[in-house]
């Protein structure tokens, strides 16, 4: 006759145990032809299950060869073995091994997911199979809602899902009462009649007597092999649906299925998933907030600057910000200012001095910053008035004892802005009339409660300070001149006048650049800290995924038994980790947004600007964390040996 379907030759299987090895199967020769119904019997511990696992390609022999339809399984890689299990074998286990989170119909359909059958066809076939096995009314029941006999029928349907040319049943009746057991045996017998090759492992001679051939095994050796029924009919098994394994189209189906499984896993462990996500939520929320805050303050400062105008140049004594000796330098004078205002590239010049003095009104006194400025200062700095006016150029020439006060000063001494107008404040010991009150200024960070008073620089220099040098000169460059060119012309002019460089020059454009680079650096730094929290969150995800893989080892075994490739298992757990993190990322973005709204209500001047790029970036980042930290656990899962995974309880 033609070649056997399954053929073991000289097969041994030993396991490492302690220091040595135990040999469970020794030199087994066994040939099974298509259409046979074989019972493998023997006492408990004789190696029946080990033999069955070898036959089903869940395990591989230590020695000897195993050929399926003439092909040596030793030459096959993991995916090819998975394909054999998926397309040719159907397993029935003593303990059913159904997945508790799936309905009966979904359990039955699972093998065809890995074969890439479209979902409509999957559903139709799983319903048809369950109906054929008398479970039409239990399609949506979970395994825990079914009796043992019903569960075993579901598992028979699952074995048939992809065709089940060879049915491997390991003690299929072992956990059933005799009535249910007989039903299962009847079903197996009718499957054999229909052309399926059926191999039953049992320790029960009564069960074995239903087979047409009995192979007895003891101590890992075959003791007897006798035929008790008729020769097998050389029938092809029935309806083996055309199963395509063509990759491209089916990969997508498998991704969707893996995502669905990940969703189910997340739902079954809500609390755990939530806590795992929390790390990611907090990490993403802080990254997004920091970026939005940085962007908000940057935009705000830039808006302030553009109100001042970038064609403004400031001149200070000293050699840069924070120069300690600057206050001792007295060479910057009003004559410099006059010389500058005579230049063709200069639109206007505003000299400036400042000091702190005690301000008194009746019995109230407070310290204020007194700035001596020109009549153009309000324009140059974009200050608006709540009441009154700014002092005139005439007041500057006359050294008029006029002042403009800010909102803080107004609050300190007077009621409303209008009440302040015309009142006399004593600055140091100079009485000055209030001619204007500025509106409250929004500051970028927190509130500023310092008092500011402006007076003509001539008044400040002669009457209050008695100094003839300036603290700063602000130059507004003429419209048609470039700020850079004007800046070098100013530097040359002052150098000539002073004979050396004892001043430094800032233009608003450089300040803008400084602010931009400072906020960028700050954002980067704080983001690094936030990234650390994300990494911590990621480690949490990895930890939980390791737990999840350990908990679901049996599920992994079942999936592998029905033909999941390593890639499928890897994808399922990777997707689960990525989905947890992505959901966490979405939660984080929402949290950042909600907290920005809440802060904006409480703190004035608090602005956060969310950009699409930062949100998309955050979501990509969180998914990437999932993939990164989920990889190790997922790889562990994918690299399990099916037989080990199934054996784990
Ligand atoms: P049966 O199914 O006939 O009751 P098994 O094939 O399950 O027997 O096991 C046969 C023997 O092999 C037992 O003594 C068991 O302890 C041993 N065995 C099975 N699997 C392993 C393994 N993975 N590692 C070590 N020993 C094993
Ligand atoms: Mg066993």
From TrEMBL:
Major site of localization recorded for this protein: membrane
GO cellular component labels: membrane protein complex; plasma membrane
Membrane topology summary: Multi-pass membrane protein
InterPro entries tied to this protein: AAA+_ATPase, ABC3_permease_C, ABC_transporter-like_ATP-bd, ABC_transporter-like_CS, MacB-like_ATP-bd, MacB_PCD, Macrolide_Exporter_MacB, P-loop_NTPase
Gene3D superfamilies: P-loop containing nucleotide triphosphate hydrolases (3.40.50.300)
Biological process annotations from GO: response to antibiotic
Positions in coiled-coil regions: none
Sequence ranges assigned to domain ABC transporter in this UniProt record: 6-244
Keywords: Antibiotic resistance, ATP-binding, Cell inner membrane, Cell membrane, Membrane, Nucleotide-binding, Translocase, Transmembrane, Transmembrane helix, Transport
Alphabetical list of SUPFAM superfamilies matching this protein: P-loop containing nucleoside triphosphate hydrolases
Transmembrane segments: 274-294, 524-549, 569-594, 606-632
PANTHER family (UniProt xref): MACROLIDE EXPORT ATP-BINDING_PERMEASE PROTEIN MACB, MEMBRANE COMPONENT OF TRANSPORTER-RELATED
Protein name: Pyoverdine export ATP-binding/permease protein PvdT
């Amino acid at each position: 006759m033609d070649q056997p379907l399954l053929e073991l030759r000289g097969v041994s299987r030993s396991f490492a145990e302690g220091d040595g090895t135990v040999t469970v199967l020794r030199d087994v020769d066994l040939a099974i032809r298509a259409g046979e119904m074989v019972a493998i019997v023997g006492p408990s511990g004789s190696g029946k299950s080990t033999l069955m696992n070898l036959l089903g390609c869940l395990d591989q022999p230590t020695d000897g060869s195993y050929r399926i339809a003439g092909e040596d399984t030793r030459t096959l890689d993991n995916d090819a073995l998975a394909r054999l299990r998926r397309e040719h074998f159907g397993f029935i286990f003593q303990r059913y091994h159904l997945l508790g989170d799936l309905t009966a119909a979904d359990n039955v359909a699972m093998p065809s997911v890995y074969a890439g059958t479209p979902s409509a066809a999957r559903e139709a076939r799983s319903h048809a199979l369950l109906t054929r096995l008398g479970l039409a009314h239990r399609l949506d029941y979970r395994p825990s809602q079914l009796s043992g006999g019903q569960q075993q029928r579901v598992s028979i349907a699952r074995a048939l899902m992809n065709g089940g040319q060879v049915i491997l049943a390991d003690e299929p009746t072992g956990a059933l009462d005799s009535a249910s057991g007989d039903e299962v045996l009847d079903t197996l017998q009718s499957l054999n009649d229909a052309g399926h090759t059926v191999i039953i492992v049992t320790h029960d001679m009564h069960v074995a007597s239903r087979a047409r051939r009995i192979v007895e095994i003891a101590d890992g050796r075959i003791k007897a092999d006798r035929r008790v029924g008729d020769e097998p009919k050389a029938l092809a098994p029935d309806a083996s649906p055309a199963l395509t394994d063509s990759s491209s189209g089916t990969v997508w189906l498998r991704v969707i299925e893996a995502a669905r499984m990940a969703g189910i896993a997340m739902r079954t462990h809500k609390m755990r998933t939530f806590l795992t996500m929390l790390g990611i939520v907090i990490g993403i929320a802080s990254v997004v907030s920091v970026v939005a805050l940085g962007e908000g303050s940057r935009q705000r400062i830039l808006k302030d600057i553009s109100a001042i105008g970038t064609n403004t140049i400031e001149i200070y004594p000293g050699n840069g910000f924070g120069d300690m000796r600057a206050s001792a330098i007295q060479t910057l004078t009003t004559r410099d200012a006059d010389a500058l205002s005579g230049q063709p590239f200069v639109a206007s010049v505003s000299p400036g001095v400042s000091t702190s003095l005690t301000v008194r009104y009746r019995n109230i006194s407070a310290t204020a910053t007194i700035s001596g400025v020109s009549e153009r200062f309000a324009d140059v700095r974009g200050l608006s008035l709540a009441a009154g006016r700014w002092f005139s150029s005439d007041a500057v020439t006359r050294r008029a004892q006029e002042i403009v006060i800010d909102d803080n000063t107004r609050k300190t001494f007077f009621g409303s802005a209008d009440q302040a107008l015309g009142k006399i404040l004593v600055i140091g010991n100079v009485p000055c009339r209030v001619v204007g009150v500025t509106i409250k200024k929004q500051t970028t960070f927190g509130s500023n409660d310092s008092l500011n008073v402006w007076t003509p620089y001539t008044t400040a220099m002669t009457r209050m300070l008695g100094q003839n040098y300036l603290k700063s000169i602000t130059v507004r460059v003429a419209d048609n001149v470039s700020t850079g060119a004007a800046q070098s012309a100013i530097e040359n002019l002052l150098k000539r006048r002073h004979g050396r460089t004892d001043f430094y020059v800032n233009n608003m454009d450089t300040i803008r650049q400084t602010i931009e680079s400072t906020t960028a650096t700050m954002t980067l730094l704080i983001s690094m800290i936030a990234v650390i929290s994300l990494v911590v969150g990621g480690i949490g995800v990895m930890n939980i995924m390791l737990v999840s893989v350990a908990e679901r080892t049996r599920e992994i075994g079942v999936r592998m038994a029905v033909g999941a490739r390593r890639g499928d298992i890897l994808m399922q757990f990777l997707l689960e980790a990525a989905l947890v993190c992505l959901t966490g990322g979405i939660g984080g973005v929402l949290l950042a947004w909600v907290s920005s709204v809440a802060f904006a209500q409480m703190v004035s001047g608090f602005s956060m600007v969310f950009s699409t790029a930062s949100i998309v970036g955050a979501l990509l980042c969180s998914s990437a964390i999932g993939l990164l930290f989920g990889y190790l656990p997922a790889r562990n899962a994918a690299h399990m040996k099916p037989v080990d995974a199934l054996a784990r309880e």
